[in-house]
Amino acid sequence: MTINKDVPATGTTGGIAVVDPAGELDVENLEPLRERLLQAAKSGPVVVLDASRITFGDSSFLRVLLEASHLTELRIAAPQPAIERLLSLVGMNMAMAVYPTLEEATALDAGKR
Length: 113
Description:
two-stranded parallel ribbon, Transcription Regulator spoIIAA, 7 strands, five-stranded mixed sheet
């Protein structure tokens, strides 16, 4: 997982924890993302994964999302087409909320859509 040095890997927007990974996420490099998601889940009832810079995810990536979703309300924001397709293919877009933008995912009423 690569991290944009200009944007924190984990931050908050409107009191909601936002995790901001980038690049290709697979079995070889998922542990930092897993740790950040689990840490963010402890900070509040909602965690947003800003997926706008994720270019690839495999079944291990999906497992990490599923694990986090059991601990918190996990919202996926701004997924790239490949990630959106992956979530749709396995039906995870039905199990967790997917939003077209980070702003929508972090809106106070986003979970009520």
